[in-house]
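Milestone 3.1: sequence recovery, worked example.
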């Protein structure tokens, strides 16, 4: 209304308000009212920006390569940049001209200029493998470029993403590389086989060396065993000699002991015999004395019985039987009767003795 406008900017833009050709206000992230008929506004982006680039270069062997990468920068002096490029915006904050595209193209041109001399000194294969060095050359070229310094721009980082040859050349390189790789693969197979053969030889030599060492150890063990056997035999011989000497000493002592023992045994047997003889002589003497005493006792008893029975010697047995204590015993009487009948048997014709009579006599005796 009446030419008065309101506009607002974010903090990534440095705003310069010109009124009647003079700077009225400047700063980042401003918002203000202005009178449009006599005012103009420049908004310079001060945040970091990325520029994608791709350009072609020719190598020393006349092969074309394409270099692709990215430049990251920021506007260090926006007021200085506004003097060289038109960043004027309308009342809606839209740029009237696309000055950023011009800025980006200038940066790409400076990068290509910094790269050109280096790439032209390289062969194709070297250039394809020199992305890092190309990146370093672009960085150094931008930082030393007067045009970049006049624009108030500070390069932050440069990244070379790819360095590629022409597609046909790339296929040829791939074929050559493929063949080279195949040769390397064949060489690797050959080396592997050769290494395997060498390892087999080393293994066989090691096995033979091991067998030789084992045989040497066996020989040493055998010799050591023989030495040990000889030493053991010598020790056995010495032990046998010591045992023989000890046995001789023991046998001598034993023989002396046996002789003394035999002499003692003879003496003991002699003493035993003499003792037995003495005992037997004493026993014989005792037996003779006992027999003589018994004979004397028997003679004494016989004499006593003879003297005692002398008065009865001439007496009739019948009288003796009568005077004995059993004269009233019927059995004795029967016995006497049978005795008299026996004495006068020639005079007896027939004699009957009943069993009852004998049973009665036997029962009376019981």
């Amino acid at each position: 209304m009446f030419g008065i406008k309101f506009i607002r900017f974010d903090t990534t833009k440095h705003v310069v308000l010109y009124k009647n050709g003079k700077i009225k206000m400047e700063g980042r992230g401003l918002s203000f009212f202005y009178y449009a008929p006599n005012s103009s506004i420049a908004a310079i982006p001060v945040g970091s920006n990325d520029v994608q680039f791709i350009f072609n270069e020719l190598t020393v062997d006349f092969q074309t390569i394409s270099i692709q990468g990215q430049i990251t920068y920021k506007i260090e002096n926006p007021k200085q940049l506004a003097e060289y490029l038109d960043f004027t915006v309308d009342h809606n904050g839209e740029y009237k001209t696309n000055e950023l595209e011009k800025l980006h193209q200038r940066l790409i041109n400076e990068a290509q200029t910094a790269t050109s001399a280096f790439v032209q000194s390289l062969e194709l294969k070297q250039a394809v493998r020199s992305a890092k060095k190309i990146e370093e050359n672009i960085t150094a070229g931008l930082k030393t470029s007067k045009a970049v310094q006049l624009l108030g721009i500070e390069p932050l980082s440069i990244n070379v993403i790819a360095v590629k040859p022409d597609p046909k050349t790339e296929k040829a390189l791939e074929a050559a590389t493929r063949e080279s790789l195949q040769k390397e693969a064949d060489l690797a197979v050959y080396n592997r086989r050769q290494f395997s053969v060498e390892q087999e030889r080393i293994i066989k030599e090691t096995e033979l060396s091991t067998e030789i060492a084992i045989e040497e150890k066996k020989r040493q063990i055998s010799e050591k065993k023989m030495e040990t056997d000889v030493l053991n035999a010598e020790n056995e011989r010495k032990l046998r000699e010591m045992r023989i000497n000890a046995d001789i000493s023991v046998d001598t002592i034993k023989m002396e002991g046996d002789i003394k023992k035999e002499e003692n045994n003879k003496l003991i047997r002699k003493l035993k015999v003499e003792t037995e003889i003495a005992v037997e002589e004493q026993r014989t003497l005792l037996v003779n004395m006992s027999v003589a005493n018994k004979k004397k006792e028997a003679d004494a008893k016989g004499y006593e019985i003879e003297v005692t029975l002398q008065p009865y010697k001439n007496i009739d047995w019948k009288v003796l039987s009568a005077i004995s204590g059993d004269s009233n015993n019927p059995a004795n009487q029967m016995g006497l009767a049978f005795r008299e009948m026996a004495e006068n048997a020639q005079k007896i014709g027939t004699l009957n003795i009943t069993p009852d009579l004998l049973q009665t006599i036997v029962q009376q005796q019981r």
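The longest helix spans residues 167-309. Strands lie at 4-8, 13-19, 22-28, 31-35, 39-45, 49-58, 64-75, 88-89, 153-165.
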